[in-house]
Specification:
Order of helices and strands of chain B: HEEEEHEEEEEEE
Helix content of chain A: 40-55%
Strand content of chain B: 35-45%
Distance between the termini of chain B: 80 Å
Structural class of chain A: alpha+beta
Number of strands of chain A: 15
Largest sheet of chain B: 9 strands, antiparallel
Distance between the termini of chain A: 43 Å
Helix content of chain B: under 10%
Oligomer: heterodimer
Number of strands of chain B: 11
Radius of gyration of chain B: 25 Å
Strand content of chain A: 5-15%
Largest interface: A-B, 59 and 39 residues
């Protein structure tokens, strides 16, 4: 029961901090909102403020439980002392009694959601990176620069709140913070409906959104999509209010706070800030400069932390995206392109599958909105009304980033607008909204979903009180929901602190105190994967030699230039050796190496390793080069490139400095290609290379490429199996000395 | 504590150092002298654990110690050949009674490097084997030899719709003794 108290304490203190910070902020402005709206606005705006506060604290090594207990109490005390907790006088008109009664449909869902939010956190992303990252910050007591996980480069406004709750109540407390947004969202919708006299539409929208299976599941997890929807809608509500009070400076400020906090919460919410700017511009037309300046200045403190952090740590203010604009060693442009492609398609074979996938099936796109949302096109009929046009405009903005990730949960920010517009349409027939929401609620209940959805649909299963109240051991719940959990839990026991573990897929790293590096989540991880798979992938092995022969010349610098344009694929060079006749020009410590692009990786072509290779990392274009500056004049007449065979059509030439400064002259180059036999010893060479890069442990899953080879040929690799749980194995990479002694000498 | 508190913002700023314009030659690796086992051969045998590195497409994943694999309708493997003369294709496979009996007859077309080697219509389920000599001119020394089958009809698993065409334990080229 002690665990439950900590969970509740972590949750409630974090919510208190948000509410108090928001109350303090709103108390500085003229109250243009009702008491009902104030409650929601305080929490939502205060969450943004508290998030920035936690971010700033992370610049010093002071993250601790005491800090996250102290902040809420201090903020609450300040709000209490200044009277900021007092609610405004205005109260919104009551909903009709019949409408209030229909809202009771929410009750069983609220119970379902609360139980699942309190149960151990088992969402795929929540248990891996959302909470895995903040667990690391908490261990390190500061915002540790993490450049081996692209998700650490996203804005982390929500994660800051998770961190506060996590410090006290661990994983479930963090999930409950998101659950608070899940409760706030229908409240906001009802407030809007009450203010603008659309009770039926408001009640319908609140129920459509709240009961939607994907909204419920997302909202009880350590995710951020429901919070995103809350922020978006709260901002819209303010903008709508701004039409009635265009000169109210407080509304400009608050719109900036919410717009900035939206960016700080999730990149895909950036259009919210654009919407606010356009709205203000439209309202004020030629006098828009002042309100726009206020909006920007208010948003800045919430946007800047993430941009500055990414500029400093990732060399890219918009990391992990736009890596072609901001080249950096942490995320490769080719990976970004593939990642974007995947997120824009998932496993769909045709976009005609999309409507049924996001509403009914729920497997391919991870979650379902509920079959009733097939009626969404009817929302367009709301264009006939003033409110409807505004709602659909906001929905269009919220949907503008959806094509970049078509997962169902990325529709959640647009859902409140669409649901309200749909509710408005349905309200033309008096009983229809209620019939539709009743049907929606029935179809969204966990016991009913299997009757129509895909059996692999991402969804809630049942009310789990025993797990929520920890009557049953948490381990049981975690093991039954997270296949990699048993092995993850053993990492603390088997891997000493500070050692790095490489794996090919996500594990629930939030439940471990060790540093786990997922291969696909960073440039470093992708390179490590390339190294360890080279012994098994013929296309990656150095089995081709290209000799670039040119008239003997004496030069201080030389460039090897690739001639072909091909945006797909990459130019790889495993090794580059330079010769004068039969004599190889010995690589000297005085040499300087450059490459264009992917300069930071150029050493891989000059390290005498057959398992590392330089990669252009952003397709091929004529003129990309590798350059060697000898530091003094050298005579040479050919270059041997050792290449993998996956680039058979590439052609090359050699350039040397020209007469004019910074110019290069093309040498007459003859190209001769020879096939080589793959070198032996690649498996061990790969392990040695990983050890040099401070990887000492490896986790494989049964479904990983070549997982069987790691186990069956473990003696050849030099891999010591340490543990096996379900489909997962943990290996320790044997040191060179151990390997040479047949694995007997263990340091 | 106070000193470290002051140092941290400075450390943050130092992270802003631009990337170098050029790099020195890195430490040179020595190539490992441990021999790899023959990474691939001419026969793929899941019972001997050398299957995964041969698979090109359409085999379902299985645990490392599984002696066979389910395939989809167009499984393809790659084999290495040193000598291309006097070889035959051999496939050890099964059509499980429970799933495949209702599908009979099942037609399997065997391909070697995109040449149709044979078309066999199977009228019985259970453990089966295919053997047939392969013209040497279809083959080439080295790793670029592809063997595949096209199976029709296939069993479609209820629920997730996975296509299960046949269970393969061995597939490859061997001496035609």
């Amino acid at each position: 029961m002690g665990a439950v108290l900590y969970i509740l304490l972590g949750w409630l203190l974090t919510v208190l901090a948000c509410y108090a910070a928001g109350a303090l902020l709103l108390s500085r402005m003229a109250p243009l909102w009702s008491r009902q709206e104030a409650v929601a606005l305080r929490f939502i705006s205060g969450a943004g403020v508290y998030g920035v506060l936690i971010f700033l604290c992370g610049l010093l090594p002071i993250y601790s439980r005491a800090l996250f207990v102290a902040w809420p109490l201090l903020l609450a005390a300040a709000a209490w002392r200044t009277g900021a907790f007092r609610l405004p006088e205005e109260s919104l008109p009551d909903l009709p009694a019949a409408h209030r009664r229909i809202l009771w449909i929410m009750a069983p869902f609220a119970v379902l959601y609360l139980a699942n939010a309190m149960a151990p956190e088992v969402s795929p992303d929540g248990s891996s990176y959302h909470l895995g990252l903040i667990a690391k910050y908490y261990r390190d007591r500061t915002l540790t620069p993490i450049t081996v996980n692209l998700y650490a480069a996203l804005s982390q406004g929500m994660e800051m709140l998770f961190l506060s709750a996590f410090s006290i109540g661990r994983h479930s407390a963090s999930a409950l913070v998101h659950f608070t947004y899940l409760l706030t969202l229908p409240w906001l919708l009802l407030c809007f409906a009450r203010r603008y006299a659309m009770p039926s539409a408001g009640v319908a929208a609140a129920l459509l959104v709240f009961c939607s299976p994907v909204v419920g599941l997302d909202g009880i997890s350590a995710y951020n999509d429901v919070a995103a929807a809350c922020l978006y809608f709260a901002l819209f509500q303010l903008l709508r209010r701004m039409e009635e009070h265009p000169e109210a400076r407080g509304l400009w400020v608050l719109a900036g706070v919410l717009g900035g906090a939206a960016y700080g919460l999730k990149y895909t919410l950036a259009p919210a800030l654009i919407l606010a700017a356009l709205w203000i511009g439209w309202l004020h037309r030629r006098r828009a400069l002042c309100p726009l300046a206020v909006l920007s200045a208010s948003a800045l403190p919430f946007v800047a932390p993430w941009i500055v952090r990414n500029t400093l740590w990732w060399h890219n203010p918009l990391a992990p995206f736009f890596n072609k604009w901001f080249p950096n060693p942490f995320v490769q442009p080719w990976f970004e392109a593939e990642y974007r492609l995947h997120m824009a398609k998932y496993s769909l074979t045709s976009f005609t599958q999309l409507p049924l996938e996001v509403t009914v099936h729920g497997a391919s796109l991870n979650g379902l909105l509920g079959p009733i949302f097939l009626l969404t096109p009817l929302a367009l009929l709301a264009l006939r009304t003033r409110e409807g046009r505004r709602l659909l405009l906001a929905a269009a903005f919220a949907l503008s980033t959806y094509p970049s990730n078509i997962g169902t949960r990325f529709l959640i920010p647009a859902l409140p607008f669409l649901a309200l517009a749909l509710g408005q349409t349905l309200s033309y027939v008096r009983w229809l909204p209620f019939a539709v929401v009743a049907l929606h609620a029935a179809l969204s209940w966990p016991d009913v979903i299997p009757a129509y959805a895909n059996r692999w649909a991402w969804r809630l299963e049942k009310i789990v009180w025993k797990d929520a109240l920890r009557v049953r051991d948490s381990e049981h719940y975690l093991v039954s929901h997270l296949p990699a959990y048993p092995l993850t839990r053993r990492l603390d026991e088997l891997v000493p602190p500070g050692r790095r573990i490489l794996g090919f897929g996500q594990i629930p790293e939030a439940y471990s105190n060790r540093d786990y590096l997922v291969a696909f989540q960073s440039a470093e991880g992708n390179r490590l994967r390339d190294i360890i798979l080279t012994p098994l992938v013929l296309e990656s092995q150095p089995t081709r030699r290209v000799r670039l022969q040119f008239p003997s010349t004496r030069q201080k610098k030389i460039r090897i230039v690739q001639n072909r344009n091909d945006p797909g694929g990459q130019w790889f060079v495993t090794e580059a050796h330079l010769f004068s006749g039969d004599r190889e020009i010995i690589r000297s410590p005085h040499w300087r190496l450059r490459a264009q692009p992917s300069n930071y990786n150029v050493q891989s072509a000059f390290d005498n390793s057959f398992v590392t290779r330089w990669a252009s990392e952003e397709g091929r274009y004529a003129g990309m080069f590798i350059e060697v500056d000898f530091g003094e004049n050298e005579t040479l007449d050919h270059v041997d490139l050792t290449l993998s065979p996956d680039q058979p059509w590439d052609t090359f030439h050699v350039e040397v400095p020209g007469a004019a400064p910074a110019s290069w002259t093309r040498l007459q180059t003859q190209v001769k290609m020879t096939d080589l036999v793959a070198p032996v010893g690649l498996r061990r060479a790969a392990i040695e290379e990983l050890l040099l890069r401070n990887i000492e442990y490896l986790i494989t899953a049964e479904s990983d490429y070549a997982a069987a080879d790691f186990y069956q040929n473990r003696a050849i690799w030099g891999l010591e199996p340490l543990a096996e749980a379900g489909a997962y194995r943990l290996f320790r990479l044997q040191s060179t000395a151990e390997y040479q002694n047949g694995g007997k000498e263990r340091k | 504590m106070r000193r470290s508190a002051l140092a941290l913002p400075l450390l943050l700023l130092s992270a802003c150092t631009p990337l170098p314009d050029s790099y020195p030659v890195p430490p040179q690796r020595t190539q490992g002298d441990a021999p790899d086992p023959e990474p691939m051969g001419s026969m793929v045998s899941f019972s001997k654990g050398n299957g995964p590195q041969h698979i090109i497409s359409d085999f379902l994943n299985g645990p490392p110690d599984q002696l066979w694999r389910w395939t989809g309708e167009k499984p393809v493997v790659r084999v290495i050949l040193k000598d291309t003369s006097n070889l035959r294709m051999r496939v050890g496979f099964a059509f499980p009674d429970q799933s495949h009996k209702p599908l009979l007859p099942i037609t399997v077309r065997y391909y070697v490097n995109n040449h149709l080697l044979d078309t066999v219509v199977y009228k019985q389920s259970g453990v089966l084997e295919f053997r047939k000599a392969v013209p040497a001119e279809w083959l080439q020394p080295g790793p670029e030899n592809y063997l595949g089958c096209i199976i029709s009809p296939v069993y479609v698993a209820e629920g997730d719709g996975t296509k299960l065409a046949m269970v393969i334990s061995e597939i490859g080229l061997e001496k035609n003794d």
